């Protein structure tokens, strides 16, 4: 079969379906998609409220809880203890499918009745403000965080991070990290991007096996490098000491100063954009892949943030995934997944949201440890159920086929849930970060909008310009104050473990609220989009798919040219 051009039923743009895509649709017996890849991704983004948290009472035990559902949402919300407990039974919401009506309105009626889990945080200690996370201790305002301890304001942190704050994507163990992005196996690094096996590096970009380096890019197994100049140990230490002392006091040095850090940060951005050589995409130990941030993967097209991923297309944030398409934030051993969001250890799962440890389920929401479910919500350890009702395997098979035929006639089968069924306002979701829309635009397109997003304004207890420039002058009482973000004017505070970490690492009090700091980090990563471009090394004619848009100023090289220069 050849590739085929179709018109997106949503945005009316043309999009292409490749022969390999048709093979996949045929294999799982679904019709080809009617929406373009971007519209499909936006629809999945609209289901992920990862980080907008509220307080409301658990509808079972009545305790005040932290949740991703604002108090005005029309759902019953249970705290994790109650939700996972035996105090309720999802099959009590069972109903018969009505063949005189379409599928989705019936499904939505059930979704509105079955209790929802407040947020996903499992097996953690003193980490109330974490979501999509497990096995953590003393973590605060972290999302997508696993096996970590004393981590603050960080997102997508796997395999254990410790004593770190304000990071995005740390993997394979990292300690004492601050404001760092996409780093693995690092120790005591600050304001850095794409570091691997590095120690004591600050303001560095794309370095491996580096230690004691400062304001440098593209280093491999180097130490004592300052502004990409190789120094002796003594000269490096002298340089850093001189540098740190400039304008600062004798004790803390310059690095505790907000003013000095601001200049360093700007200098870092400048060397990253003007000096660094950027490989067309961050792709490691992988064959036949397109996308960005991909390692140990093969045969993938348009995947981002992938590790050990195979035979997959249009997938985002997909570690350890095989044979999947069009899915988002899923993995840790997933295979044959199509149009899903937030799965862990699932196989043969289609059109499903927030469900772990399942096989052969479709059109399900918040179902766990189950097999052979269709159109279910909130089920645990169940088999052969449709609309939360128990059937025999034979009955299940027959009824499922009948409902799918009914849905196909109505044009309902074969795609993710319509955006109108998302439990969230678009402005609460990752959609607003990666594909932002105005309220009017979102409402016109059928998305919801949340008016009550949390945030306090105008309650600051001190004038920001009077905040001590240097951390050494910040009083203990700073943790009692309401600060005012210098970017969005939202009030925020400094928590005690944060003050301790800032002092330990000689870092000034942040002037931006946690959310503005998060958005700034996201802004430093290339977008999850690809452009066809040519290598910028003079004389090279190699072409590639890159997440760097053509108008960007960075030096973008093909793999061969990058490898020739970065050694
Ligand atoms: Zn479209
Ligand atoms: Zn409860
Ligand atoms: Zn802010
Ligand atoms: Zn080249």
Textual characterization of the structure:
The protein has 567 residues and is of the alpha/beta class. Among the domains are: 1-34, no CATH class; 289-415; 531-565, no CATH class. 21% of the residues lie in helices and 33% in strands. Strands 8, 10, 11, 12, 13, 14, 15, 16, 17, 18, 19 and 20 form a twelve-stranded mixed beta sheet that branches. Strands 22, 23, 24, 25, 26, 27, 28, 29, 30 and 31 form a ten-stranded mixed beta sheet that branches. It has a two-stranded antiparallel ribbon with strand order 1-2. 45% of the residues are buried. Mean pLDDT is 96; it is low at 247-252. It binds zinc ion (4 copies).
How much strand content do the residues show?
25-35%
State the separation between the terminal residues, measured CA to CA: 44 Å
Q: Give start-end ranges of low-pLDDT stretches.
A: 247-252
Largest sheet: 12 strands, mixed
Structural class: alpha/beta
Report the helical percentage. Answer: 10-25%
